[in-house]
Amino acid sequence: MHSYNTSSMNQLFNSDVHFPNTNLSRSVSPEQSAYGGAPTNQLLQSRYNSVELQPQNEYPLLSYDNKTQIQFQRRPQRVSQGMNFGNLQDGESASAFSTPYLLQNNQRLMQSQPQGPQSEYALAAAAAAVANANAFMPSIPQLGNSRNFNNAPSKTVYLGNTPPTLTVKELLDHVRSGVVEDVKILPDKMCAFVSFVDESAALLFHSDAILKRLHIDGRDIKIGWGKPTPIDPVIATAVANDGATRNVYIGQLNTGPNLAAQASVDLSEPVITEEKLRLDMQEFGEIDCIKIVEDRGIAFVHFASILNAIKAVTSLATINPYYKNKKIFYGKDRCAFITKTQQHNAAQFLGVQPGMEGLVQFSDSELISNALLQQSAAAAAIATSAGGPNNLGNRTVYLGNLPKDVKVEEICNVVRGGLLQNIKVLVDRHVCFVTFIDPTAAAQFYAMSSLHGITIQKRRCRVGWGKHPGSLENALALAVSNGASRNVYVGNINFTLDNEGEKPFFTESNLRAIFQQWGEVEQINFLPERNCCFINYTNISNAILAIDKIKGHPAFKDLKINFGKDRCGNVPHQVR
């Protein structure tokens, strides 16, 4: 079995890329392009017959005052001509979705080219995209370069085509890039503005929303830039001196019977409820969400604005006697929480091996942000160079020319670099479609498989892009952030006692029969020495359903049930 090289896309950034074919045996140096707040997406050099794109609405700078002002930043875009070769030959192709750019000559762009990983053009596109991606991505300061990635044109991101019933909570459920200063929703104009404390957080959200095709309540959301405005001096002072955020922490609350005994709370007070908190706090401004931690006697109230949170912290105890003796301060903004997925992606990009994250400051949001920004830009370059602008954010990679008797397990053994949402094998057509959770992981896998090849049963597979699956559902994204995967872990199994029985229960055939009622099972692994086993599904949704249902099975009620690690998310193997 052949394995492909690199622990991250970033490995290719420090040197020129050389092509193995004699006709392409020249290096491609990154083009130096000016950075104007968003990647110029200048993918390939002129010798690859690139064509200009004319921006449509480009990056509008909008203000959310009474008179909406619109300005446009003119940045010519460039994609490679005739680079649709990565798509499939047998009826499967990337689906179109809204993009802020229109091709001047769409027919020329979509001219046919040889297909499959053997194509010189496919190899050129993948390698050149990775190389050129570095041209507009300043290096991470912690990695030895003094440049910083803070050139966003504004700290406010504009969202258009929003649902008229959109709430602050629904909007901010999609934001995981940094501390939010303020949120404005204009239902009559079907748009919204999210302002961040730092421009780098705005840039990360902006690029992430474009790459992952932000989708809310059945709508494709248009992404742009709001009008640049300075941060309020009151907010800037509170952030610098007190660590102010939108989140107000309230301690020493009587939260009811689940309260831990050691909590120093006056139990004679009325039990706090979400309704009371909302009623007491809404006079300071619009509320995003409220969370009460009953066993600790604390609550967190997220406002739509930091300024409203500052008012609450400074005056709540004075104007409301109920909170006179309560601890009141700032909590962490839920939009700035570094998820497990973000840590995993940053580690992959930086080439950090599993278990070695402690050597890097993975609690440093700036490090994570910079790594994710560079990773997103590289993924966008790879996807659009191989499949055109409509392929941006695609998470599905096509593998063809598979062995006739190939098993799903064999395919998963060679797929590395990202968690999988689903893997679908069409046995009669000898092809399969691998859908990743994250488009950056899909782009990395596509690029490395195209450059170095991917082999199953000594057979070279074709690599291309499958049909665009659209953006990942937010509920599934949140589940993944909390540790969900295709892999179900079952622990605390007494294999010795089970084997002594007349008919052992924990066998592969028996477990497969039980767990397959919730979906196709790819593989079952046993670790008797650790008293556990792992059931791998082909679809992450089936694994989530199985964990929910299996807890009601009498044979599993005393066992430990959780998500295991998806082996496809491991760092790619090194070429020997």
From TrEMBL:
GO terms for molecular function: mRNA binding. Keywords: Repeat, RNA-binding. Residues 155-228, 246-343, 395-468, 486-566 form the RRM domain. It holds the Pfam family RRM_1. InterPro entries: Cwc2/Slt11, Nucleotide-bd_a/b_plait_sf, RBD_domain_sf, RRM_dom. GO terms for biological process: mRNA splicing, via spliceosome; regulation of gene expression; regulation of RNA metabolic process. One of its GO terms (cellular component) is cytoplasmic stress granule. The keyword Amino-acid biosynthesis does not apply. It comes from the Eukaryota. PANTHER family: PRE-MRNA-SPLICING FACTOR RBM22 (PTHR14089), RNA-BINDING PROTEIN MRN1 (PTHR14089:SF8). This is BN860_16336g1_1.
